[in-house]
């Protein structure tokens, strides 16, 4: 089988006059884009459609890349990790290969204009999320376009991971309106994955703020002088204030009933990131008991920023212990559980209790709702 002479001629004209090309397999039509204008070539197959489309792709690839074999799809893994850098990314948008478009959207060399062309070729949520990790797109005209598409598509997402990633990416500064943000937050009452997106993207500026702890004012005289040069004091001051109290409330809410492992990992990592400024340099333990031992050792030190904070605010010992405990938290604490189960829902939540309950208890301490069960000797 060969391409008809008419299709060959028209495709060559399309190639010469296009900035990007896409193939509509269902309608057997090849489209080209030049500026804002679209052109099309209606194919006239003289045999099986799939074989004919293969010939079309061979023509496109041969003319554009000089390689009739097309884009090397075996590079899929590296493509999707953003490891493919190509001096001629624009050419990859001319060959009608979906994986070549993914290579462009994941490339560190992506520009706002290339994003516009890639979006015309393959307007899929996966590509939008990939492009919204690129500063050139976030700051360009395509950023709001992609964010709006993702939020419109969000109700149709079925994977929790995609939901929270969409929210996290859309909440980047300058992409969506305040009204859109509020609707997204309200929708999170029933879809906790949305709230995790907020925790990850704007942890100190969450909607529906709750007041600072009632005793904040009484502790400011001890904490404020330290906060300018002591990261532990600075974080504790924030935790007692409205921003920190709101974060703790929302984080506790999403940890109550995580639906699957992706959501749990994302929630735990968002919590760990919030406390990262005081995280010890040593690798995070995987066992809660080991974290307790680490906290005890750190709080017993006779010098350093933590010692200074403990001495300056002895009435906040329980809160300081809770803060340092949470600074150890990341997805490593989930590894011993998830390495032995793929459970979701209520079964997963039951298995997670040895991790989640201590975290929630430390949240309660920081919110002034109960005392820590950790008995560290500070003398």
Give the SSE string. Answer: HEEEHHHHHHHHHHHHHHHHHHHH
Radius of gyration: 27 Å
Quaternary state of the chains = single chain
Distance between the termini: 87 Å
Beta content:
under 5%
- Report on the biggest sheet: 3 strands, antiparallel
Strand order of the largest sheet: 1-2-3
Domain tally: 3
Count of helix runs: 21
Overall morphology: elongated
Structural class, from helix and strand content? Answer: mainly alpha
Unreliable sequence segments: 373-379
Task: Count the beta strands.
Answer: 3
Mean pLDDT: 91
Residues in helix, %: 55-70%
What does this structure look like?
- 58% of the residues lie in helices and 4% in strands.
- It is mainly α and 379 residues long.
- The protein folds into three domains: 5-65, no CATH class; 73-201; 216-366, no CATH class.
- A three-stranded antiparallel sheet has the order 1-2-3, sandwiched between helices.
- A hairpin with a 4-residue loop joins strand 1 (20-24) and strand 2.
- Helix 5 runs antiparallel to helix 6, helix 5 (98-106) packs parallel to helix 7 (125-131) and helix 14 crosses helix 15.
- It is elongated.
- 37% of the residues are buried.
- The model is unreliable at 373-379 (pLDDT under 50).
């Amino acid at each position: 089988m060969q391409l008809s002479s008419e299709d060959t001629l028209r495709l060559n004209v399309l190639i010469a006059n296009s900035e990007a090309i896409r193939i509509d397999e269902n309608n057997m039509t090849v489209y080209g884009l030049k500026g804002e204008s679209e052109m099309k070539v209606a194919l006239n197959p003289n045999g099986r459609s799939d074989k004919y489309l293969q010939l079309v792709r061979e023509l496109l690839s041969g003319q554009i890349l000089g390689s009739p074999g097309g884009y090397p799809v075996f590079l899929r893994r590296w493509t999707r990790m953003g490891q493919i850098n190509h001096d001629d990314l624009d050419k990859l948008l001319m060959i009608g290969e979906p994986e070549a478009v993914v290579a462009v959207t994941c490339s560190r060399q992506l520009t706002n204009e290339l994003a516009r062309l890639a979006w015309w070729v393959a307007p899929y949520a996966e590509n939008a999320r990939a492009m919204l990790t690129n500063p050139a797109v976030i700051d360009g005209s395509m950023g709001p376009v992609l964010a709006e598409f993702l939020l419109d598509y969000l109700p149709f997402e079925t994977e929790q991971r995609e939901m929270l990633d969409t929210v996290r990416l859309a909440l980047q500064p300058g992409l969506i309106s305040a009204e859109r943000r509020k609707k997204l937050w309200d929708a999170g009452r029933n879809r906790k994955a949305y709230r995790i997106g907020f925790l990850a993207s704007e942890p100190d500026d969450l909607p529906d703020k709750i007041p600072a702890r009632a005793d904040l004012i009484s502790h400011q005289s001890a904490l404020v002088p330290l906060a300018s040069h002591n990261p532990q004091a600075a974080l504790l001051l924030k935790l007692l204030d409205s921003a920190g109290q709101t974060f703790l409330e929302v984080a506790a809410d999403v940890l109550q009933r995580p639906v699957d492992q992706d959501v749990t990992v994302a929630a735990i990592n968002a919590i760990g990131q919030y406390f990262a400024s005081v995280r010890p340099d040593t690798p995070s333990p995987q066992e809660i008991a080991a974290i307790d031992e680490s906290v005890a050792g750190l709080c017993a030190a006779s010098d350093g920023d933590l010692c200074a904070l403990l001495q300056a605010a002895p009435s906040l010992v329980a809160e300081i212990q809770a803060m340092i405990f949470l600074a150890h938290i990341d997805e490593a604490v989930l590894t011993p559980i998830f390495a032995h189960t793929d459970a979701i829902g209520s079964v997963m939540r039951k298995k997670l209790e040895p991790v989640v309950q201590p975290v929630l208890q430390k949240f309660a301490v920081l919110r002034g709702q109960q005392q820590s069960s950790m008995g560290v000797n500070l003398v």
